[in-house]
Amino acid sequence: MAAGSGPGARELFAEGLLQFLRPAVRQLDRHVHSVRESQVELREHIDSLATELCRINEDQKVALDLDPYVKKLLNARRRVVLVNNILQNAQERLRRLNHSVAKETVRRRAMLEAGGYQAK
User: Fold this and answer.
1) What is the sign, positive or negative, of the torsion defined by CA atoms of 50, 56, 59, 63?
2) For residue 29, with 0-12 CB atoms within 10 Å meaning exposed, 13-18 middle and 19 or more buried, which class applies?
């Protein structure tokens, strides 16, 4: 077996890789959460604007055809909801990945510590 390719080296590499990935996963999770909050806020504004346009359309004595604009707003809202669902799924995958990384880190630390105590 070549030097540095034993089980200890693999464990050390895996631990380093987990330590390297954890901050990126957490940062990405925070960004996804922030975008999801923005998407919810945008959806609420679109709903409010569509309601207001419908109200204005009903109150106008002069016939203004605002239906195309309302339809555009509703289409934009649908797209926002779709993006929000995609982000929600991605955030859930990130949460599971982060949990797995943390669990694996604890397991590997326990194995390394157990191995360290046996060597003494």
Assistant:
1) negative
2) middle
Choose among 91, 114, 120: nearest CA to 7: 114
120 residues of the chain, pLDDT tens digit each: 444 556 677 777 877 877 888 888 888 888 888 988 998 898 899 889 888 888 887 777 666 677 788 888 889 889 988 998 998 898 888 888 888 888 888 888 888 778 765 544
DSSP 43-101: HHHHHHHHHHHHHHHHH-SS----HHHHHHHHHHHHHHHHHHHHHHHHHHHHHHHHHHH
**Residue 28, both tokens:** 């990405």
Contact 81, 43 (CB under 8 A): yes
**Integer Cα distance of 30 and 26 in angstroms:** 6
- Does this model's pTM top 0.90? My answer is no
